[in-house]
Amino acid sequence: MLTHAKQRLKNPIMHAWIADRTKTFDSSGIRKVFDLAAKLTDPINLSIGQPDFDVPVEIQDAAIAAIRGGKNAYSPTQGIAPLREALRAQIDAQYSHADRDVFVSSGTSGGLMLAMMAMVNPGDEVIFLDPYFVMYPALLKMCGGVPVAVDSYPDFQLDPDKIAAAITPKTKMILVNSPANPTGVSATAEQLEAVAKLAAKHEIALVSDEIYSRFQYDAPFVSPASFNDQTIVIDGFSKSHAMTGWRVGYVHGPSEIMATMLKIQQYSFVCSPQPSQWGALRAMDIDLQSYIDDYRVKRDMIAEGLSGRYEFTLPGGAFYLFAKAPGGMGGEAFVKRAIERGLLIIPGNIFSDRDTHFRISFAASNETLKKGIKMLQDLHDELT
């Protein structure tokens, strides 16, 4: 039997102590793009998936007051009472479900991990759309789940018939993200209702990732929880209030599921940072309409600038546009060409089994967007 030291010599690439589960997924490809761009001195950055505005001052002040007021210890695992009460009032007003509890998670990413750990057994299948948020398959593989990515090209719509066709006796969960990362596409109320009823019919867990729910440009936001009272909803303050580093999300759904997720949080994340939670409480009173209006302008600006040159579906929400690389070029090759010119965008194969598209984030200043649009126009004209 080989010792750990001999195993390391035999396979120097992989340390002998590293768990097998880590071999089932790679590091985020987004980080690799950043490595490629590390030598750029003044890039046109349309890659970052976070708002370009700062945390509103009122929220900053609330967190500072909490810190100076001695609110620096652990909070209850479920979150500070005032924030939970405010969230509960908002959720009850929206849904009026007989059995719907809420707790504060360590960001929406933490909420997603807790949901997978609480509900997915090894071998269970989880359905979601391709393209997908990079974390979905990795989280599922960590807990032994089987990702089932349903192709949504070319228009990236939530097709209930495709979801139904993917259901097997091993299906445990359907994971919906609307508005979506990386496409920015918003599902219609009819699509969400059909998928919600499909999950209920087959007694499948329905998880709705709603982190971009406030970035909705052309129609009111609709949650599948409106049509299925067993839906587990994951949301937070990271994108809407530019609080990506504060780690405050929240999850609501059937009380027994919430209690199980809390049990796991107790032994993992413990709680969301307490000062951040006091900031989030203040955030609930902030009017975001001016920010949403600004992002609608940005969406329209980049859509108009790329129209006629690139194939894409107009994003109805979030702050992403997912475009097809021109001239038959693969998405990764196109992105490398763009980075060589000083434009940072993300190849679509990071979010997909296909390598045909690239993701643009229009969470940038209007000046940066104009430069990026001009660069993309020039690249298209050179390649076609």
Account of the protein in words:
This protein has about 375 residues and is of the alpha/beta class. The protein folds into two domains: about 130 residues, Aspartate Aminotransferase, domain 1 (Alpha-Beta Complex); about 220 residues, Type I PLP-dependent aspartate aminotransferase-like (Major domain) (Aspartate Aminotransferase, domain 2), CATH 3.40.640. It is built from 13 helices and twelve strands. It has a seven-stranded mixed β-sheet, with helices on both faces. It is globular and about 60 Å long. The N and C termini lie far apart (about 60 Å). The N terminus is likely disordered. Keywords: Aminotransferase, Pyridoxal phosphate, Transferase.
Provide tags for this entry:
about 375 residues; single chain; alpha/beta; 7-stranded mixed β-sheet; 3-stranded antiparallel β-sheet; Aspartate Aminotransferase, domain 2; globular
Count of DSSP E strands?
12
Individual helix count: 13
Order of helices and strands: HHEHHEHEHEHEHEEEHHHEHEEEH
Report strand order across the widest sheet.
2-8-7-6-5-3-4
CATH topology of the largest domain: Aspartate Aminotransferase, domain 2
**Largest sheet at a glance?**
7 strands, mixed
Tell me the name of the CATH class of the largest domain. Answer: Alpha Beta
Tally of distinct domains: 2
Report the CATH superfamily of the largest domain. Answer: Type I PLP-dependent aspartate aminotransferase-like (Major domain)
Structural class: alpha/beta
State mean pLDDT (0 to 100 scale).
93
User: In CATH terms, what is the architecture of the largest domain?
Assistant: 3-Layer(aba) Sandwich
Rg value: 21 Å
